[in-house]
Write a sequence for this structure.
């Protein structure tokens, strides 16, 4: 039985061809080629490319002396449908019984996991096989040639929502999920579930590439994954979850204060309890920070506000447009949205939508199903404020379709309206189109009394996601360890200043605190925190 080895290198952006691995300077794609040639049995080989990656692929094939083995399949761009179609054509052309699909930016594809997948696939006559519970990037997918033809039919269907989406590592499974019970699926289970760590060992982004390089430092054997006697995937996974360097690479989320937190009304906002006069960041300083953030992270989400409503800044649109002028950055706006209904605000919103509506996410703090509970949460506001908040969702959705989320911060004061809120907004006919967020109450390390209707924390504590991925920046450039350490706190912990020290230097100062979490040691404030398991971006 012949295996068709199909490597995807049709990336829009990637570090797959950077010569950063081994003393000889091999790229991730070269390591993938080494893995592909090591798959046992009779095999046929192909690589999916675009005009952007074609020459890089050809150079790597020549460097690895395997240009004659691999056929190239070129398209201007790849989506889920074109990927499924080419997999079917490749299987038919090469008479392959199954196709082993792997992405060319995964340097640690594991030989043993691959063989175990293929053995299981054949033994149980599976149509689709995958590695379950392992970090992303250790194993390929195996798809029966007959199943690929079925998937092509699904992708061509009128109701398929994923066919036109760009090809990703989730594309094939997204098609299978549309009728999952119709397929024979097998998996090779990890000895324990590593999914909660969100480990991604691909060179798809700077953050993931740095994680790969860090794993090389602590476990050099990872570079022998593609060999028959190569690295043990379990050993590598265990090493990764104990490494702060693997888990904390560059910030994925920058939350920047651009307006004053004074005067906020929501009872769950710390500045409603302890008013402080904190100026928002000046625009010129903001521009410098955004430039540095993109240079450091390459890709990141920028939030405008921390605990302060960004729409209270009269120049809000300038700040938003500055973020959108940087290709690698997207924008998050969390707001009460009361002034969205003002006539003068429509022009600003239109300019932002024109600059990049798909890169802007709005979270509107509605928090209630009716005006009475809304007034209880938002500090005595009248019924018109609730009407404006709900109307704002519709206004924003018209300009930013699919990217507006009414939010309900769940607490004892509004628990009575949780079900009504969810049923209304989750309906596809609602003003948000079905988008809804139920947010847990944050007692800010017991700065507030505990108003959580339910304790959602995991049985076993895990290292804090915010130490791994977030950077909060106050108006003057100060960076607290997290937003629980903003100035409202009794003893705020400021780790540095982005303007005085630089982003990279400040970010390095987070590492000792993350190491303590990995060692299950928590300082006084971290020990009281209930936000460690919540995840932003």
């Amino acid at each position: 039985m012949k295996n068709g080895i199909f490597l995807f290198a049709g990336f829009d952006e990637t570090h797959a061809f950077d010569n950063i691995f081994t003393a000889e300077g091999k790229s991730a794609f070269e390591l993938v080629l080494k893995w592909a040639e090591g798959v046992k049995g009779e095999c046929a080989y192909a690589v999916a490319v675009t005009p952007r990656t074609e020459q890089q692929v050809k150079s790597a094939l020549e460097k690895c002396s395997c240009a004659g083995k691999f056929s190239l399949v070129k398209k201007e761009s790849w989506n889920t449908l074109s990927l499924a179609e080419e997999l079917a054509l490749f299987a038919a052309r090469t008479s392959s019984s199954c196709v082993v699909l792997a992405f060319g930016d995964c340097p640690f594809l594991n030989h043993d996991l691959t063989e175990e997948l293929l053995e299981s696939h054949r033994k149980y006559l599976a149509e689709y096989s995958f590695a379950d519970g392992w970090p992303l990037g250790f194993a390929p997918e195996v798809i029966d040639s007959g199943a690929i033809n079925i998937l092509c039919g699904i992708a061509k269907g009128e109701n398929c929502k994923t066919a036109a989406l760009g090809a990703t590592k989730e594309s094939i499974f997204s098609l299978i999920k549309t009728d999952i019970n119709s397929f024979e699926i097998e998996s090779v289970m990890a000895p324990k579930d590593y999914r909660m760590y969100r480990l991604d060992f691909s060179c798809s982004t700077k953050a993931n590439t740095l994680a790969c390089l860090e794993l090389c430092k602590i476990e050099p054997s990872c570079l022998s994954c593609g060999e028959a006697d190569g690295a043990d995937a379990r050993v590598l996974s265990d090493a990764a979850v104990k490494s702060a360097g693997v888990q904390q690479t560059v910030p994925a989320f920058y939350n920047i204060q651009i307006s004053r937190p004074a005067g906020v009304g929501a009872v769950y906002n710390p500045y409603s309890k302890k008013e402080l006069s904190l100026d928002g960041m000046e625009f010129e300083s903001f521009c410098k920070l955004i430039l540095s953030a993109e240079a450091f992270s390459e890709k990141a989400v920028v939030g405008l506000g921390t605990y302060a409503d960004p729409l209270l800044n009269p120049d809000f649109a300038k700040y938003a447009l500055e973020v959108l002028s940087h290709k690698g950055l997207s924008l998050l706006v969390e707001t009460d949205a009361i002034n969205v209904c003002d006539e003068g605000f429509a022009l600003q919103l239109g300019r932002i939508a024109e600059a990049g509506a798909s890169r802007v996410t709005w979270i509107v703090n509605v928090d209630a199903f009716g005006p009475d509970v809304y007034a209880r949460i938002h500090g005595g506001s009248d019924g018109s404020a609730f009407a404006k908040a709900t109307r704002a969702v519709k206004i924003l959705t018209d300009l930013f379709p699919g990217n507006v989320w009414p939010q309900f911060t769940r607490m004892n004061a509004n628990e009575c309206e949780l079900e009504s809120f969810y049923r209304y907004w989750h309906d596809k006919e609602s003003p948000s189109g079905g988008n809804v967020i139920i947010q847990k109450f944050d007692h800010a390390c017991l700065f507030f009394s505990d108003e959580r209707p339910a304790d959602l924390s995991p049985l076993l504590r895990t290292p804090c996601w915010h130490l791994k991925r977030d950077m909060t920046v106050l108006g003057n450039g100060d960076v607290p360890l997290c937003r629980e350490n903003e100035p409202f706190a009794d003893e705020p912990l400021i780790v540095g200043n982005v303007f005085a020290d630089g982003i990279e230097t400040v970010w390095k100062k987070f590492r000792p605190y993350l190491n303590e979490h990995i060692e299950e040691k928590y300082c006084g404030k971290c020990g009281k925190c209930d936000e460690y398991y919540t995840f932003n971006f």
Observations:
- Residues 35 and 226 are 4 Å apart (CA to CA).
- The domain at 253-501 is CATH 3.20.20.70 (TIM Barrel).
